[in-house]
Amino acid sequence: MAKRSKKHTEALKKVDRTVQYDPINALELMVSSSYAKFDETVDVAVRLGVDPRHADQMVRGTVVLPNGLGKDVKVLVFAKGEKEKEALDAGADFIADEETIEKIQNGWFGFDKAIATPDMMGAVGKLGRVLGPRGLMPNAKTGTVTFEIEKAIAELKAGKIDFRVEKAGIVHVPVGKVSFGAEKLVENVTAFLDKLIALKPAASKGAYLKTISVSSTMGPGIKVDPMLLK
User: Fold this and answer.
1) Residue 11 pLDDT > 70, yes or no?
2) What is the CA radius of gyration of the chain?
């Protein structure tokens, strides 16, 4: 195991690993204990009371974070004709022409999100093997296969995230930057958790939000008490 830095050890001492904090205290503690020289990303990990092996317990959704992600989201759009012009006017960073598609096939991934109009999915499908594993494949369920290009781009640029429960029953998402401060981070975390709760499968029995943890890129995980969310 790699040796922890002195700063990480000091940050770890500030956190009582036996305590489940209320959301605002957890995020205040995370912000105060961050030590990296860069603006760290803040992540939330939630263990759900579901078994993703069963289709009726799969949890997947999207949410636009009220304070964004604190990063410039690069958007690639698969479109043609008027929709290509609409995409450029709406702020798309890249249009997937033949040259761009070839670059992607050769390993270029200079974008964070991809959108496609439904009539372009034939071309997009050929890139499934390279886009899929990186979570970049446009998908109707997350609103990235649509003719409403302007709306889709605006949402992604504003901080729309998509999430899906992993095999172990955990949902893991970014919710902003340390520089946001605890108050804005709480707003983002609340928006995400409200959406997550709304998606609770009928087949899920018992506790749905089992454990919640927040952490910065370099910092320790801090437990949040699910019972104190409201």
Assistant:
1) no
2) 19
